[in-house]
Automatic annotation (TrEMBL):
InterPro entries: Znf_C2H2_type (IPR013087). Residues 8-28 form the C2H2-type domain. SMART domains: ZnF_C2H2. It comes from Rotaria sordida. The lineage of its organism: Eukaryota, Metazoa, Spiralia, Gnathifera, Rotifera. This is C2H2-type domain-containing protein.
């Protein structure tokens, strides 16, 4: 398949030329949640955000509601 000296650390794709590698790097969009290091295409970041961050937020909110003390 040829020699690929430029490798993407995010997705492990190899590129024979630096220009193609640099163009590819621009396709990785970082997740905008502080402390999250996930990066991928815009569509995959959107799916990641829904599955990871929004589900975690919903779960935390549900747990808070379930664990609140209710007056008798």
């Amino acid at each position: 398949r040829g020699f690929h000296p430029f490798w993407c650390a995010t997705c492990a794709l190899g590129f024979p030329h630096q220009v193609a590698y640099q163009d590819h790097l621009r396709s990785h969009i970082p997740c905008n949640v502080p402390g999250c290091s996930y990066a991928a295409s815009e569509q995959l970041v959107r799916i990641h955000h829904l599955n990871i961050h929004e589900n975690n937020l919903r779960n935390r909110m549900s747990n808070n509601i379930l664990h609140q003390t209710r007056p008798m």
